[in-house]
């Protein structure tokens, strides 16, 4: 039954719905002028989140879909940091006052390829340009294969308090098939170094659906991961789109598991993590009972944004770096994707916005419905519509896929209140897609 539903609703092809509308709807009609206007209009007291994209790695993971540059030298990274600081200055000067910051996230690529001294200097520069709250979360993505004791010390000194470690799989056969050989010992050493220097909140990323992966290897990876007791785990399904992502062409398609195997792997990982004491968060996250995500989920405050699930309620995300996405004021913006183009814009004293999207009132309603579904597995459509001044009938009637979802027993609908049945949470994105005005309706 699970496999037929996954096939019927094309689950693997649907957006992740970390934002709505999704990136394919972005247009060059929204550029630097719109972004500057939105920055100038930001409220003085509303905290913002910062995202800094560092697009460098030492080697290419064949599954990876993020824009990154492979470099064995440090010079390109140092040069990029100079441009990044210039962008931070340009953006902060657009705001009418120093903006308060509640959350900072360094992503990539591999942000910890930045040297320890350079990272400390960058954090000091950010603190001069923004007003960090005492409780601000500062998170960094880490590749344990290149992580050093010196960098761990620098992260602690810089005030980093959360680290997200890429694990994906501990199976050596799978690791070889994706060009990411990383031992359990390397990961455990990185965790120990981080905790020793006060970076106590640890996240792991795992992936199912990889080449040569089996249910047994997924369970063994999950078991090894929970032995290190990370606070959170994100468990993603590999999305194979070699027509768009060139490095994925190095993966042998015949070695990829089919939809039945993918579903079995996802279920096995979830069962392993829940049995180890982790709580399911939304679609693809797991957290310990005392983690902020679990507490936010319990109280209905869980949010979903371009960085995934969050306990923060901030409305503004400012993105820095090549390809970075932000949500500011009236909509979304994205920087130039290529590093060269991004650098040229910043060097000329211009914001590097290449495209974006201006939100309409209807977009905001649909985004709110989709977010509640993705976070709570339920949405009170009439209440959400009333809060935005809209008639819920319009949205319920246009969600053509809802009737089919109800008929298949995936959702229960009563007076516009939609609840996804727990056993069908794996097809949650198909429920969200029913409210996506830009997505072709899924055929029966």
TrEMBL record:
Belongs to the anaerobic coproporphyrinogen-III oxidase family. The gene is hemN. This is Coproporphyrinogen-III oxidase. Its EC number is 1.3.98.3. The keyword Oxidoreductase applies. NCBIfam families: hemN (TIGR00538). GO terms for molecular function: coproporphyrinogen dehydrogenase activity. It is found in: Cytoplasm. Keywords: 4Fe-4S, Cytoplasm, Iron, Iron-sulfur, Metal-binding, Oxidoreductase, Porphyrin biosynthesis, S-adenosyl-L-methionine. The keyword 4Fe-4S applies.
């Amino acid at each position: 039954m699970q496999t037929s539903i996954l096939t019927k609703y094309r689950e693997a092809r649907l957006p992740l719905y970390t934002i709505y509308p999704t990136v394919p709807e972005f247009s060059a009609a929204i550029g630097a002028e719109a972004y500057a206007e939105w920055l100038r209009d930001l409220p003085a007291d509303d905290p913002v989140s910062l995202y800094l994209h560092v697009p460098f790695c030492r080697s290419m993971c064949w599954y990876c879909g993020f824009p990154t540059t492979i470099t064995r030298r440090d010079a390109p990274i140092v040069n990029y940091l100079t441009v990044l600081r210039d962008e931070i200055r340009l953006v902060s000067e657009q705001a009418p006052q120093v903006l308060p910051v509640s959350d900072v996230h360094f992503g990539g690529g591999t942000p910890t390829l930045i040297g320890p001294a350079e990272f400390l200097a960058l954090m000091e520069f950010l603190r001069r340009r923004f007003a960090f709250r005492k409780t601000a979360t500062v998170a960094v993505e880490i590749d344990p294969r290149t992580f050093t004791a010196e960098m761990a010390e620098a992260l602690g000194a810089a005030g980093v308090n959360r680290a997200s470690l890429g694990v994906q799989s501990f199976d050596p056969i799978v690791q070889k098939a994706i060009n990411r050989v990383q031992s359990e010992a390397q990961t455990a050493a990185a965790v120990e170094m981080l905790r020793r220097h006060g970076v106590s909140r640890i996240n792991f990323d795992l992936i199912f659906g990889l080449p040569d992966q089996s249910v047994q290897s997924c369970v063994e990876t999950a078991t090894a991961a929970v032995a290190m007791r990370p606070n959170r785990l994100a468990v993603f399904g590999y999305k194979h789109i070699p027509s768009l992502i060139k490095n994925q062409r190095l993966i042998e398609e015949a070695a990829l598991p089919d939809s039945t195997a993918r579903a079995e792997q996802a279920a096995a990982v979830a069962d392993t993590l829940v049995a180890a004491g982790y709580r399911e968060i939304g679609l693809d996250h797991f957290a310990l009972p005392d983690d902020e995500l679990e507490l936010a989920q319990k109280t209905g405050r869980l949010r979903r944004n371009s960085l995934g699930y969050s306990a923060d309620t901030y409305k503004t995300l400012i993105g820095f770096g090549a390809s970075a996405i932000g949500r500011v004021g009236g909509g979304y913006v994205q920087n130039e994707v290529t590093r060269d183009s991004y650098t040229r814009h910043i060097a000329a004293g211009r914001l590097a916005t290449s495209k974006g999207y201006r939100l309409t009132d209807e977009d905001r309603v649909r985004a709110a419905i989709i977010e509640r579904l993705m976070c709570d597995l339920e949405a009170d459509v009439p209440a959400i519509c009333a809060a935005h001044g809209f008639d819920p009938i319009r949205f319920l009637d246009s969600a053509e896929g809802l009737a089919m979802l109800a008929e298949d027993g995936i959702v229960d609908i009563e007076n516009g209140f939609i609840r996804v049945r727990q056993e069908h949470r794996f097809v949650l994105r198909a429920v969200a897609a029913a409210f996506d005005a830009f997505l072709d309706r899924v055929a029966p």
